Amino acid sequence: MDTFFVVIPKVRKLPIGMTISVNNQTLEVEAQTLLSNVVFNQLGENSKGIAVAINGQVIPKTSWQETVVSENDDILIIKATQGG
């Protein structure tokens, strides 16, 4: 009886989705998601008076469209309000 070996190539899995935390809520997002998209999905178009931090580091609004979120990032979105 002959013995045959089957070689199965290793398949590299590409990340389809990842988990992040936004204001203590766990969210699933696509890989390569921009911070600006996360903010828009949470607040809509009104992003005036908003501050955002990723893992405790404040991200300037000018960088939101070039900042890619990563797996397990902890994102904090704060909206300034007026009051008396």
Structure description:
It is built from one helix and five strands. The chain has 84 residues and is mainly beta. It has a single domain (17-79), classed as Ubiquitin-like (UB roll), CATH 3.10.20. The protein has a five-stranded mixed beta sheet with strand order 2-1-5-3-4, with no helix packed on it. The model has no long low-confidence stretch (mean pLDDT 86).
Task: Looking at this protein, list some descriptive labels.
elongated; 84 residues; five-stranded mixed sheet; Ubiquitin-like (UB roll)
Give the arrangement of secondary structure elements.
Blueprint: E1 17-22, E2 25-30, H1 35-43, E3 50-54, E4 57-59, E5 74-79
Brief rundown of the structure:
The chain is built from one helix and five strands. It has one helix at residues 35-43; strands at residues 17-22, 25-30, 50-54, 57-59, 74-79. 11% of the residues lie in helices and 31% in strands.
Please write the string of helix (H) and strand (E) elements. EEHEEE
What is the number of domains? 1
State the end-to-end CA separation. 89 Å
Architecture (CATH level 2) name:
Roll
Looking at the structure, the CATH topology is Ubiquitin-like (UB roll)
Strand order across the largest sheet: 2-1-5-3-4
Measured as a percent range, the helix fraction is 10-25%
Give the overall silhouette: elongated
Q: Please identify which CATH superfamily we are dealing with.
A: Beta-grasp domain
Instruction: Please state the structural category.
Output: mainly beta
How many separate helices? Answer: 1
In total, the number of strands is 5
> How many whole angstroms does the radius of gyration measure?
20 Å
Approximately what portion of the residues adopt beta-strand conformation?
Answer: 25-35%
